Amino acid sequence: MEAIKLKQKDLTHHPVYGTFQDLESIRHFMGYHVFAVWDFMSLLKSLQRHITCVSVPWRPSTYPADMVRLINQIVLGEESDVDQDGKPISHFDLYLKGMEEIGANTENIKAFLASGNLNLIPAGAREFVDHNLKVAQDGHVVEVAASFFFGREKLIPDMFQSIVDVLKKENISAPTFLYYLERHIEVDSGEHGPLALKCFDYLVGNDPKLKTMGLDAGLKALEMRQMLWDTVLNGRV
């Protein structure tokens, strides 16, 4: 656990955050980060597949009802939240709208979604997505939960707050993007983060082997995140 805490601390002080000085730097960042926003949903859907029943015919989950509700709560919030006008929208689509609003490049992510071809993802983001998809598709449920919590929910609020600060300081008009950022800061730190941790703790229980498996997966997820941030940073120098 100590290794994860140290890696999280390193990531919260990653120099890429220091590049968020103007609109162009944020556009550059979003061109990579949008792929992390997308594959976040694959990890979440993998958890939903493991813990709830998404097959036909339906069968009761083998997990407690509060676990099923917990996962479905997160899915509801991520896949069908509301925008600033109260209209239902996924957080991914909200992010895309935010990208379009500030003029960030959406061609790569749209081409990838249309084809499913990983080669259309920029290097750096490609390795990140490939790793998380393998975890989501083939990993143990504990590995999925660890990647979801340690590599995602725990890091997002601080990162997004630094972008919010720049948008407000520079008086950049981006209501959709600003709403997305502030909404994610709210739900990740106040709702989804604690729910994801509860999920991980329940799955691990008192099993030391599962705990080790989860912590290893969480550390690997953080290392992949660092690699992604390094790629974003190197593209700015």
Element layout with pairings:
Blueprint lengths: L1 H11 L10 H29 L13 H15 L1 E2 L5 E2 L1 H12 L4 H9 L9 H14 L2 H13 L2 H14 L5 H30 L3 H27 L3
Account of the 3D structure:
The protein has 237 residues and is an all-alpha fold. It has helices at 2-12, 23-51, 65-79, 91-102, 107-115, 125-138, 141-153, 156-169, 175-204, 208-234; strands at residues 81-82, 88-89. The protein has a two-stranded antiparallel ribbon. The chain is globular. The relative contact order is 0.18. The model has no long low-confidence stretch (mean pLDDT 89). InterPro entries: DUF3050, Haem_Oase-like_multi-hlx. It comes from Peredibacter starrii. This is DUF3050 domain-containing protein.
List keywords for this structure.
237 residues, DUF3050, mainly alpha, 73% helix, two-stranded antiparallel ribbon
Helix amount: over 70%
Q: Give the helices and strands as they follow along the chain.
A: HHHEEHHHHHHH
Biggest β-sheet: strands ordered side by side in the sheet: 1-2
Extended strand count:
2
Report low-confidence residues grouped into runs of 5 or more. none
Structural class designation: mainly alpha
InterPro entries: DUF3050 (IPR024423), Haem_Oase-like_multi-hlx (IPR016084)
Pfam families: DUF3050
Organism: Peredibacter starrii
Protein name: DUF3050 domain-containing protein
